[in-house]
Every structure is written in C-alpha cells, then in structure tokens.
Design goal:
Blueprint (H helix, E strand, L loop, with lengths): L1 H24 L13 E4 L4 E4 L1 H22 L1
Antiparallel strand pairs: 1-2
Amino acid sequence: MAPEVGRTLVFLGVALALVGFFLWSGPRIPFIGRLHGDITVERDTLSVYAPVTSMIVISVVLTIIVNLLGWIRR
C-alpha cells in the first residue's frame, strides 16, 4: 500500500506545482483570454466575460497531456 500512496502524493505534488506555475505565468501568456471566440460584453454597470475559445484550447491541451501520461504509464 505504501508505494501507491507515495506515487499518488508525488503525482499530486507535480500537478499542484504545474497549476501554480500556470497561475503564476498566466498573465504572461499573450493569447489566453484574447482569442476570437472569447465573449466580452461591457455596459454602464455590467461587465460579462466568457472565455469560450480559451477554455476549449486549454481543455484540448490538458486532454492531450492526460492521454499522453496514460499512454506512457501503460
């Protein structure tokens, strides 16, 4: 049981470090949040921002990474 717990903790630590890195460097990535399909509505007292295209791009990239990790682990 101990090796599985250790492996899980290492995986969670690496995942947490990657999330922290992306949050830290997020504003420096020039295209995220400014793609053509991102919706921005600004009125006098209302601002709505829906990053539709950015979320699709991030989802595709994360799906590829998770599938590669699963393929490597086999």
